[in-house]
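Predict structure. Input: RNA-binding protein, 478 residues.
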Amino acid sequence: MPLTEPHDDHFSAEEESVVGARAAGEASGTPDPDATPGGESGPEPEPVLPEPVRQRIVALTAAVLPGLPADEVPVPLRRVAKFAPNRRARLGAPAIAAQLTADPLFRQRVTARVLADAGDLGAAVLEGTAPAAADPVEVAALAYLARPRGWRDLIEASGAAVRAEADSAIVAELVREAEQRATRAEHDRAVARVEADKLRDELARVREELGQLREEARQLTRTLRETQARERKATELLATERGRAARAAADADAELRRTRARLAEAEAAAGVARASAKEARSVDDAKLWLLLETIGQAAVGLRRELALDPVDRMPADFVADAFADQSATTQAGAAARARDTDDPARLDQLLALPKAHLVVDGYNVTKRGFGEMSLEQQRKRLISGLGGIAAQTGDEVTVVFDGAERIHGLPPTPRGVRVLFSRKGETADELIRRLVRAEPAGRPVVVVSSDREVADGVRRHGAYPLGADSLLRRLARS
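Output follows.
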């Protein structure tokens, strides 16, 4: 191919301007060695160079280009000479090729440098010979630059050698590809043999499993027949049992009718018995009323004989005074006579006794009934409810709270309700037991607390302990 064949690389704007300024047709006046004698005809056309030879010529020229004096470098190549070594031959190839073709003087200057660097090989090329061991591409490149006698033959021989090498490379590549395909085919045959062995093994396993499945199918068929036979027998037994169940249901209906008749007779007898019991109770109530009236008259006479004046202070008031004065008084208690229960009806029965005293464990009741409120709201709600009970029953009511000091800001205490706070070093449970011990023997004292220790303690002193739920139900009912 010609030396000035276009190059495929991309250029920057600056490099394109340099490459574009090739000196096509601006050859110097130095005659070419290959010009025909007499100067009648122009120089012979440039030979078609193999691509490796063309690239080598450009590389040799680009290598010596920076070493030339500035005035010996053609104007279009002066910018190219300043490129980096790895970019000079790649980007300046078109301009270098054009100058080598059009400027014989420049080519001669480049040839002198290149031959000096080539040494013995350069001398051999100048003599028109090529060593057998020399690289044909290098020989052709030197022959093109030096252009000794018979240089076109050297280039032609180099092209033939390059083409032979290319053909050899192609043949070698084809042989290598054929060997690779043979290797792959052999590998594929080995893999196919392995897969065939696997498939034969799999087929044998499938046949064995198929035999097992056929045997299982035969067993399942026998089992199905047996199951169907048992189902027929079960159906027959079920029909028999349904007949028996129908007869049993008829017998049960007859027995139910007889039982209902006996129940009606029993209800009639119970009505007669209730009427008789009511009449007997009326007689007992009349006797009891007469006894209580007699006891009441006797008590009036006894109080007149003992000259007992009415009192304006209750025993719990003395306990409260002693509590305020940081002193304690104790009296003997009575024998235990109470039961523990949460029934509000039991509470009503006890509060109906004459001169009953209701003692309440304050926080034990409030935290159980409305613990979601603040302590102040709990106290207000309990005290207000106890005021209603005191107004309804006329009984004495005392509510006890834990507290080292009396809490200020309490609402006005309802009439008939006493509010106490335990002092420092004393709990509300201990204060409740003091109140119970202060009461006279025989007076009904009702203590409301779900604390088992409090209930056991006051029971030993003759009080009636009740759970907090009894009072909460009583308050909810009010």
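Residues 4-41, 326-340 have pLDDT under 50 and may be disordered.
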